[in-house]
């Protein structure tokens, strides 16, 4: 079912400092910040030859990243994202197998403009999993 690793997301308490670290210290190609109000985050993508790293920063008062940073003030890995060919078929197969889909179970449009879903971390050994429909 799952395809390639799309990205690993890291929540950061200071987006500008994180961007500077990746750009200046690691020499990475860094995208411009992109606000995603539906998800309560500002994102920046670090482009790697084989995948991406997504830096997440809270956007708005109800951002789930703000709550994550309260528990992890230095930041940390927030989720991993795998690609799937058909997000609805993947969701239905996962639910039939007992996995919990977060939210209302309907895909939202993610930062890449593709449908995404999140799966409960308790069903995946403590890791929050995002599924993104490959284009």
Give structural notes.
- This protein is of the alpha+beta class and 135 residues long.
- It has a single domain (5-133), classed as 2,3-Dihydroxybiphenyl 1,2-Dioxygenase, domain 1, CATH 3.10.180.
- It has helices spanning 15-25, 64-71, 87-96; strands at residues 5-11, 29-30, 34-36, 41-47, 52-58, 76-84, 108-109, 115-119, 129-133.
- Strands 1, 2, 3, 4, 5, 6, 7, 8 and 9 form a nine-stranded mixed sheet that branches.
Order of helices and strands: EHEEEEHEHEEE
Radius of gyration computed on alpha carbons: 15 Å
Question: What summary fits the major beta sheet?
Answer: 9 strands, mixed
Tell how many strands the DSSP assignment holds.
9
Helix content: 10-25%
Relevant CATH superfamily: 2,3-Dihydroxybiphenyl 1,2-Dioxygenase, domain 1
Which structural class fits the helix and strand makeup?
alpha+beta
Would you summarize the structure shown here?
By secondary structure, this protein is α+β, with helices and mostly antiparallel strands. It has helices at residues 15-25, 64-71, 87-96; strands spanning 5-11, 29-30, 34-36, 41-47, 52-58, 76-84, 108-109, 115-119, 129-133. Strands 1, 2, 3, 4, 5, 6, 7, 8 and 9 form a nine-stranded mixed β-sheet that branches.
Blueprint (SSEs and pairs):
Blueprint: E1 5-11, H1 15-25, E2 29-30, E3 34-36, E4 41-47, E5 52-58, H2 64-71, E6 76-84, H3 87-96, E7 108-109, E8 115-119, E9 129-133
Parallel strand pairs: 1-5, 6-9
Antiparallel strand pairs: 1-6, 2-4, 3-4, 4-5, 7-8, 8-9
